[in-house]
Design a protein that fits this description.
CATH class of the largest domain: Alpha Beta
Radius of gyration: 25 Å
Order of helices and strands: HHHEHEEHEEEHEEHEEEHH
Number of strands: 11
Structural class: alpha+beta
Strand content: 15-25%
Strand order of the largest sheet: 2-3-1-5-4-9-10-11
Shape: globular
Helix content: 40-55%
Distance between the termini: 11 Å
Number of helices: 9
CATH architecture of the largest domain: 2-Layer Sandwich
Length: 355
């Protein structure tokens, strides 16, 4: 995997230019923008410098190889570096891959019970707590936007914001249908049932760039759902927004109608933005053998089999016998990292074919 020297130099030149500009910039907006670019470029520049050092050292060793006294030692060191070089080049190639512009964004995550009645709602609750724990381990902040609790436990639907650096980059492959196979707590006969829940992970970039017009949106107010109480029962505080061109519906039912309107509009924009992302992803995936991030939100992506203690991700043929740890959130990182690695491998393969 040979990386052109010119490409390596370009990365370092850009990194040095950003550092130089940061030392003299005075406008707040420019400083923030430069700091963001610097943070993104630094690991790439560090990797490039490391690779350049190895390549330079190899050239020196090749010259020394003909030396009567130092030749044998130089050849041994050269062979050792040659063996390490492919892994290092792959590491740098991954760093050089085009970045998804939304990878650093926070997200809104939506988990909904699918087929399976009460058990599907209980499973939706399990999934949400899994993401909640994983987010906590990453140092991210989780805030529930709206939740519709089910009678037997769990949620018919729950929507939450997850705020932090790099959230979407980690969670973007979680969108899809999650299937569970287990004996429900509501089942007296001990039979294994199959239920499902859907997960949608919507990127929340600072500036959502979409063609959006509130004239296309129908806004309805209604009674908020809840356990009871004077405020919930008597105030039309819940807001439902329907984007008529696409049919997308968003409902927010906190106590404040003002807050609900703002949240509903924000989430509606995010869903429209996600719809466009999914369309682009699906077009790109049409040219790929695998579809880690195909954009197909109706695809069954993962099965959680409780009797066997097994979690299987069907997109990358990954099977882990660590169900308890994964569902608890502590082991989800292994699944997330495998999906990211597979996506990187696919994109590297595309670049090699194009090159």
């Amino acid at each position: 995997m040979k990386i052109p020297r010119q490409k390596l130099e370009q990365v370092l030149e850009r990194f040095d230019a950003v550092e130089a500009r940061m030392s003299v910039a005075s406008e707040t907006d420019e400083i923030v923008k430069l700091a963001k670019e610097h943070a993104e470029l630094k690991p790439v520049a560090d990797g490039v410098r490391k690779l350049q050092e190895v390549l330079s050292e190899m050239e020196d060793l090749e010259e020394m190889a003909s030396d009567p006294e130092m030749g044998a030692m130089a050849k041994d060191e050269l062979q050792s570096l040659k063996e390490k070089l492919p892994a290092l080049e792959k590491e740098v190639s991954i760093l050089l891959l085009p970045k998804d512009k939304d990878d650093n964004a926070s997200v809104v995550i939506e988990v909904r019970a699918g087929t399976g009645g009460d058990e599907a709602a209980i499973f939706a609750g399990d999934l949400f707590r899994m993401y909640q724990r994983y987010a906590q381990l990453q140092g991210w902040k989780v805030e529930v936007e709206t939740a519709s609790e089910a009678e037997m436990g769990g949620y018919k639907e729950i929507v939450a914001s997850i705020t932090g650096n790099g959230v979407f980059g980690k969670l973007k492959f979680e969108s899809g249908v999650h299937r569970v196979q287990r004996v429900p707590v509501t089942e007296t006969q001990g039979r294994i049932h199959t239920s499902a829940a859907t997960v949608a992970v919507l990127p929340a970039p600072e500036d959502i760039d979409i063609d959006f017009n509130m004239n296309d949106v129908r806004v309805d107010t209604m009674r908020a759902s809840g356990a009871g109480g004077q405020h919930v029962n008597k105030t039309d505080s819940a807001v439902r927004m329907t984007h008529e061109p696409t049919g997308i519906v968003v409902v927010c039912d906190a106590k404040s109608q003002h807050v609900n309107r703002a949240n509903a509009e924000r989430i509606l924009k995010m869903r429209l933005y996600d719809m466009e992302r999914a369309r682009i992803d699906a077009e790109r995936a049409g040219e790929r053998k695998a579809q880690v991030g195909s954009g197909d939100r109706s695809e069954r992506i993962r099965t959680y089999n409780y009797p066997q203690g097994r979690v299987s991700d069907h997109r990358i043929n990954l099977t882990l016998y660590k169900l308890d740890k994964i569902v608890a959130g502590d082991g989800l990182g292994e699944v997330v990292d495998s999906l990211i690695a597979e996506d990187q491998a696919e994109r590297l393969a595309e670049l090699e074919m194009d090159g």
